[in-house]
Amino acid sequence: MIPLTVRSSYSLMWGTAFPTQVCRQARRLGYTRLALTDTDNLYGLWPFLTACRREGLRPIVGAEVTQPGGRQRAVCLVENDTGYRNLCRLLTRRHLDEDFDLETALPGHAAGLMVLTGNPDLLRTWHSAGVAVAAAMPRHPLPLTHPLCRTAKDLDVSLVATPGSFFLHPDDAPVHRLLRAIDGNTSLSRLKPDDVAPPDAWLAAPAEYTRRFAICPAAIDATHEIAEHLTFSGPQFGIVMPPLSNRNGDDPDRHLRAATYAGARRRYGEELSEAVVERLEHELRSIANMGFSAYFLIVEDIVRHSPRTCGRGSGAASLVAYCLGITNVCPLKHNLYFERFLNPGRTDPPDIDVDFAWDERDDLLDRVLEQHSGYAAMVSNHVLFQPRMAIREVAKVYGLTDAEIGRVSKRLPRFWRAKESEPELLVGIQRRPESRALEFPPPWPEILALAQRIIGIPRYLSVHPGGVVITPRPIDEYVPLERAPKGVPIIQWEKDATEDAGLVKIDLLGNRSLGVIRDAVGNLSANGVRFDESVWEPEDDLITQQALAQGRTMGCFYIESPAMRLLQQKSRVGDFEHLVIHSSIIRPAANEFIREYIRRLHGGQWDPIHPLLAEVLDETFGIMVYQEDVSRAAVILAGFSHAEADTLRKVMSKKDRRHQLRDFRNRFFAGARCRGVSEDQVAAIWEMMMSFSGYSFCKPHSASYARVSFQAAYLKVHHPAEFMAAVISNRGGFYGTLAYVSEARRLGLTVLPPDINTSEVHWTGRDEAVRVGLLSIKDLSTDTRARIVAGRRRQPYRSMGDVLERVKPAEDEARALIHCGALDTVNPGGNRAALMWELSAWLKIRSRKPIPRTRNLFSAAADAGACAPPPLPPEDERERLRREFRVLGFLCDRHPMVLFADALQHRRTVKAVPALWRPLFSPPPTTASAT
Amino acid sequence: MIDRQRPYLLTGKVQADWGAVTLTVDRVEKI
Question: What is the pTM of this model?
Fold first, then answer.
């Protein structure tokens, strides 16, 4: 018996076991071959192929394709490469064609596929269309008089045993039922028989199937006969590079050379130095030899339309990428080795990732997907049940109310991942300080036990933050596509599977700080300050370096976290080279090494951890800082090849690293011992290497980021008003608006209140002041903000009535505008209560009678004005500030703590003032200048 | 702070490490 209809947990909300577990169980049961036929997808193809290799099984690739909204279905098993391409296309049509019809669609994509169906009509139709079909006898033998058996006999096609499985053991059935109830948003007791798989739909041993099909052993034999023809063992794409965009057969190597040299002259001037030419020739040769020229040109084409980008990843080590404008750090100036990016020993695809301003990224993606329509899609993200989601969903199935569920779930950390949870969920929750006091009366213990069993099961697909795949042939020949809810096409594989398949992914990611720099520079330009970015070298500016050395970097990209600012302060250095080190060493698992780095930086004695590593780690005081340090240590100390060392580096950043890492550890220890490294030394080095697991950067990446950090820091030091306005406007930084407003005040800036006649939608900065933008007024809709600004451009607002008539805000919007002070300049009396009176009168008049077309624009306001406010008591200042804070989230003219001065008077408090900071000296900026 | 948030008084040990000042909080009190 060979199981030909096996589902994993990638048959979303039906299957319970991950392909790895399916394969392990199949091997235990004594199978040597196995098909994976998840419903309407190939999500789990690569984990399945990997698991088959590990378990010594021969894989059969396939999928079950269903009729949307109907009961027709077919299991398609791949015989050869043609069949694989056809299956991908068929699944793509299943997901993308609104009028997909399985019966008519399948024959056109059936070449190279073996199709199993339990529907006698489909069997006959497809057989007559020339499709290779077999009659699928599900679960138990059918009587010979059954239409399926009779049709199979008529057509002389095989009758094959296909006892489909959805779980691995009989006791997994409750988990399956639970998933079905979650999927149907219902309770267990309301599940109908059709909603669930039969109770015996587990992967049984061959003997069990032989017993079940004892009366027709030919059906079991047929599984072997079919499997004989299925020689396809997985796609072998090699590395799939994006093609040259015009696909006209031009020589990409020649194009790349011309584009690179043109870019080099833009970067370095007409006369190129020998060092530049030598390096370019070396890189161009390597790129051409490895067949990556077209890939560079595609990426260049993508970034060409965006004036502000930040290359990330190892691609920043390439001078060619720098000359093409893909990256912005000169690899020669900053000593970045090209071999970190590309070398002949590397078997995996190169990695060029680019950041774009966060609010420009979606348009850019749309343009790329449109330009390469049919050949491009985004990478997907497989969203798995995490502890919070699992507990919430199971509790819903048990009929608990949102309030009852919230009592527990709100005390669980939002980003609590499956791997961090305890083997026993309840024990884990009770250990957490925030949930220790919670009680768990029945049915909670049962809920948590079941929730535990679904953690890690895939729930749905989402879109990877920025991964795009562009292929030389139509993309649906490589992988099935779907459409994400936001409308973009996505491939069915997540990023690791995409890489396993050899598809080269280009990451086009959103970066808020690029928006900050863009807006700050734009604000300067609007203020009449000339700022020439083409000659901007912020790294060389001494005053910026000094600010960095003191950790004065709130708002600055990548270096504004408390940990990073502390590191900067402790290091007391702010030059580019050190910032690159600091951006990379600041990892969660590296505290001990950071302390030691600081000690050594300040002149502390140290010896290399091993003489063989002395030179490699000299620049970082003997401490491993960059990803490549791990690879180099593995090569030098343990004799790994460059490719093996690179694999080790990659394994360390993977989620499921434990298994592979054990093997690497053994080889590392054995290799190091052979080179005479002592047991203590090798253990210490391995421990340092492990501090990189899960979170680490290569030097080119850190250098690329440090460049953006420097740009931000430069703007903060020299143009604080424009910079802080841009930071607050772009939002999404490390801190909230209140913290940035406080920082602006610490920088000596005046925070001007929002004003109906002055505020733009975004914050603006000029001289020593920032003006609050309309976007910071809570409750003010995007449309109303736009109406305010557009109306003012035609004519300034003259009165409250004028604002109400021309802007027509909703009541809550008008209240917010009044309370935050945005209408103070049209309120000559200065008492905001008078504005509230006017608003009430206006609302009352508006609700009472429609305004005739013939009456003039301000007639309602005139009516309102007629209801002049009575004498109003003076405003209570505290109440006014309280309302202002409620609308804005900060106060414009003071820090909210000022209001608590009395409460603090009698306490022995210490003010955390920046008294310990050294003053910045202020020589003129070195390059971009204010005029 | 005034409305949704509250001010708190933090008590703890102030330390200087290579010139960087940190507060290790051992008590948090509402003001």
Answer: 0.83
